[in-house]
## 1
Amino acid sequence: MTTVRKSGALRLTAWGAPPRLVDLEVPVPRDTEVLIRVEAAGICQSDLHVLDAAADHLPYPVPFTLGHEVAGHVAAAGPAATGIAVGERFAVYGPWGCGQCGRCAIGHDNYCDRRGSLSWSGAGLGRDGGMAEHMLVPDRRYLVPIGDLDAAQAAPLTDAGLTPYHAIAALTGKLREGTTVAVIGVGGLGHLAIQILKAITPSRVLAVDVRDDALELAHRSGADLTTLTRPDSGKVLRAATEGTGVDAVFDFVGNDETLALGARALRAGGDLVRVGSGGGQLTITKPGPLPQGGTLSLPFWGTQPELHAVIALARTGRLRVETELFPLSAAHSALDRLRAGRIRGRAVLVPTGPGELP
Ligand code: NAD
Ligand code: ZN
Ligand code: ZN
């Protein structure tokens, strides 16, 4: 009699239904695939956007396993996955593209030329992700070595770290000495945005949130000034720049209120960077909400070289993710707490299960 090894996974099985924690057979890696034994998987606000999505809103076929922020070690490798050893530890680069276009060829899979025709946005977003004991990664090129970095740190860095890094790196030429930026929403992404701004730019950082504990986290992350969202937050931000306005706004909320606030706070020639998917709209007219010379951008996730840079920053101690850890069996309550605004920093699932290596 052969025993089939089982492995827990948190799956979206039907649109609009709560995700289900189920037992699956441990997958066998084929071709270039690598089987990762998951050590940690972060929970992102985007997971809630997926769970809340209407059936025809996203192109992802169900069922699939959630989890797009993953770190772990190699449990097995397919026959064509060369140069990889069982036990090696990696962070998973999540925004898998087609793997063939010009963008994917240089590791900019987040802007894959064929994104519009793919039925996934990446690991855990239409393809099986890492809120599980095991995860199949299609190719070794999506794995970034982490050495002895704590997995609960490495996992959130693959999105909550990488996405702000990508957004900030695009502006480092502009964010010189004497500049000021605003970070709106100091959750998983926002608190790392503040740390990254402090690590790679000389900018002064103003942080805005609706929660006092998030502002305390902003302060610990290096923010120079923190303020609760209020009707006159635009004035508060302008006053902090002697009326000039801020050079850039990184909006990690993206609702009507924060987009309007960001536009109001901006200096002429400034950058409004919308990262949050909070459903808000900003109507661009001329003249309109944006100042003269204003730029609006919509960065998505980040590139492979940027993930290497983020992991390197963390390994030298310059990034510190504030985490709340949960076992995989408590995934539902972790999701509920995130929805209720009761997570400080990043919630991270730490799957525990029988068998370290198959
Ligand atoms: P999070 O829940 O960890 O943090 C959000 C923070 O915003 C919280 O601290 C919350 O208190 C604060 N907030 C809520 N309403 C606010 C308001 N009106 N004013 C100021 N602060 C407010 O979320 P997260 O995981 O950091 O994700 C942030 C957003 O970014 C989400 O919409 C997510 O879907 C999106 N996201 C986008 C990308 C991308 O590639 N563009 C990648 C990851 C996440
Ligand atoms: Zn995410
Ligand atoms: Zn591609």
## 2
Amino acid sequence: MKVLVINCGSSSLKYQLIDSETEEVVAKGNCERIGIDGRLTHTPAGKEKVVIESPMPDHNAAVHMVLSILTDPEHGVIGSLDEIGAVGHRVVHGGEKFSSSVLLNDEVIAEIEECNHLAPLHNPANVTGIQACMELMPGKPMAAVFDTAFHQTLPKEAFLYGVPIEYYEKYGFRRYGFHGTSHSYVSKRAAEFLGKDPADLKIIVCHLGNGSSICAVSGGRSVDTSMGLTPLAGLPMGTRSGDIDPSFFEFIAEKEQLDLKGIMNILNKKSGVLGLSGGISSDFRDLRAAADEGDEKAKTALDVFCYQVAKVVGSYAAVMDGVDAICFTAGIGENTPLIREKILSHLDFLGIDLDREVNDSTHGTEARISKPGSRVEALVIPTNEELMICRETAALIEGC
Ligand code: AMP
């Protein structure tokens, strides 16, 4: 079956058409600047990439363009929309309602909308994408795959914050965690790579990209994770602060005469390694280049990031009472040997014997970067959230 995977942002729509039997990507692409002007970049397997600039006033127009290009005689990959067996949608927040993927219907959409207040920037866009697809492909089976679902196994001691319990009871204020599809995929793949049953493993997945989070996976279940109520929590990221002293709000409001909106803007957009480096960049490639040229702030930003990652990894080894494998994934985790080495240099006590040669030559490919006999394995496992969404969607349809 061919599964169309849709990931809708507020002004973007990424898609992949995947054959669920062979797991081959038949075509992929994205629509950018929806509601502004509109640009579609489409890459069909085995054919030239095409870029089309065309007005996309809303997500309906974007989905319409995607479906047209998929069936286009020149750039398309299918004869008609009937060849699409199902659509899998990424949904960011499923609250406590969704602990696994679900088939979509009006009732489920209403329940997703009830989670909108927990992810006001993401969930409404996800729902818009779902509704656009339903309008343009009526009757097509569709599934929602949630970023939060994998973390619904967190125990109370890991998901409750030290604030009055009534905020959890009344409003659902708790740690939810994100990147669940990635953590789930990478931990399963790591078990396969090691030739072991996930039930027998304690794995720590470091998803290090523009957004970064870490997950402790024990026996195949997420038992702790670094993001929280929102994806602002945990590690310092490209532009997000991660965890800080909550007194920051009162302190900086007074010093800089800022209101809540202004402070949230700083924490989301101007902090992390961008802020720490004095505004050089949120991109680790730029920071490394600046650090190599002797920029002290860029060097410090990288040091802070690596230290904080190591600190979380160490704490997760503690909560699981040990660890068998540490996995690196996403843009930074897959492509930056220096960052992996710096992180692991803080974790000698765990018994990781890094193979520097293999680490240095691993960029975006699956590899064991620890030496044979290392007490704890270190692995690079490229993430594949789209494939995971395709698998989940196909499994739901086949289970009907
Ligand atoms: P992501 O959000 O997973 O796309 O990751 C984005 C981050 O990964 C950026 O900070 C990039 O610097 C880093 N990154 C992505 N690709 C590469 C690459 N080929 N080499 C080094 N860093 C990369």
